[in-house]
């Protein structure tokens, strides 16, 4: 009798413990759903508000005092130009630094300092980079509120992302590849340039895309360096029809970018401008989502395809 | 390659041996030069840090020559642009503190639950779809979150509590918390995934349920990683700018009430940068002093996180 009672007590205990399992699983799913829900609300809200303004004219008009005629032409052109500078600076620097740290760096205190430093930089708020750029690029170097200053700032900002991605990609290459290349008499740089860098390219690319997606949405550092918010002109085109074909005037031109244009419209009281902000935000979200999606897809492909 | 056979036949001839040595020397030189270039690229990150510290300290020193440090730390007003100027950083810190607290109250519990769920409970298919999704959520530009806080969350909250002002720290903090969830969740999950399977198996063998194993075995074993994820979350919240600049209001306000509008350190920097302050004026210097405060705070967070990861790590 007592035995049977104990058994039911134990069974009850087990059941109650298992109930906690189910409760928690539901909680976890709900917490996850909250994220999904927020994201959907954000996206749908902005799409509904901005949809009436989305048109070809919106993409090809300059900002204007009249909300119905305003567009994001100077904003997306500015974003494209700033991104060009950022990519040109951050990718070579980041890849070189990553290769150095993985393949060349001796184990000493200099290397330790560089590594700790990179971890630390990844945690510095973006607005602090803006202050650095304001003090250093804008005034010390005299670059002014230019495309070049903004591009350099964002390049420094995403440098840790590119370095970390490069290092992870390099680390996943098996030692045998290096040993094989060295055994054939390759120098260290030949091994790096002919084997290590090409093989880690997909991983590096993923990191670069994620970094660029972050840079596209960065607002605070660019506001800090004093980018103008009302720009009704385009920087000089980088390519010309006659010799010398390239033109670097655009680097020193004033500019605005997508997130700043959106911020400008968001801080206006008129509802019509908020609509513009929503439309600009919608375009911006699509850009970053596309880039992040591409990076995630690339990573998925790499993980599936590479079998060393 | 022709040069290879050339080298083989030339071994015996002293003249071409010299040529070979010269070639080898130039190759070594080139290798050294490349290594130097790569090293300089790696050094850029150190230069960035030095640049940040140099600029912040240089401008702050000028600021602190005008404003005593004691006033900076104890004054209860922040009115640097008025004629009767006061520089009490406490005012901005209170806004930063309050909004971060709201954000962490959202991000830490939800992030932890999501991390435990994804690491210990979720079937493979859910985990594989949820992780990229969280990553997307973390990749949304913060200005978009700011718009969302101002024009979606604030009206929603006003529906429950009509007295809520249009700018307030609560909605900014909530949205900021949602923004931080992916960071906390994914770092905590990484820490939990690193706990070896044998610990879980031991726990299951003793008859523990999943929930018991998760909360009493996995979480304690991963606590250093989880703690550093929280600290990273804190440093994110403190450094977040655009959400607060858009939805938190920009007037300095010494308050710990999230229902009020208040400026944070970051929002103040944005506000000053938007106006046209002349280079070298005291107003211009204030943003560097504010930036230095911010930098010191996040640096302390980063170091704490690093120490936590290193010294409390359970080694398996």
| CATH architecture annotation of the largest domain in chain A | Orthogonal Bundle
Name the average pLDDT of chain B. 86
Alpha-carbon distance between the two ends of chain A: 64 Å
Individual helix count of chain B: 13
Strand content of chain B: under 5%
| Assigned CATH architecture of the largest domain in chain B | Orthogonal Bundle
CATH homology-level superfamily of the largest domain in chain B: MetI-like
Give the proportion of residues in helices of chain B: over 70%
Q: Judging from the principal axes of the Cα atoms, what is the shape of chain A?
A: flat
Rg of chain B, nearest Å: 27 Å
Assembly form of the protein:
heterodimer
Q: How are the elements arranged and paired?
A:
The complex is a heterodimer of chains A (308) and B (316).
Chain A: H1 2-50, H2 56-60, H3 73-104, H4 109-122, H5 126-140, H6 147-171, H7 175-183, H8 188-217, H9 220-224, H10 258-266, H11 271-305
Chain B: H1 2-10, H2 14-66, H3 69-74, H4 89-121, H5 124-139, H6 142-160, H7 169-193, H8 197-205, H9 210-221, H10 223-239, H11 242-247, H12 265-274, H13 282-311
3D architecture notes:
- The complex is a heterodimer of chains A (308) and B (316).
- Chain A has two domains: 2-52; 56-305, MetI-like fold.
- Helices cover 74% and strands 0% of the residues of chain A.
- By secondary structure, chain A is an all-alpha fold.
- Chain A has eleven helices and no strands.
- Chain A starts with a helix and ends with a helix.
- Chain B has 316 residues and is an all-alpha fold.
- Chain B folds into two domains: 2-66, no CATH class; 89-311, MetI-like (MetI-like fold, Orthogonal Bundle).
- At the A-B interface, helix 1, helix 3, helix 4, helix 5 and helix 6 of A face helix 2, helix 4, helix 5, helix 6 and helix 7 of B.
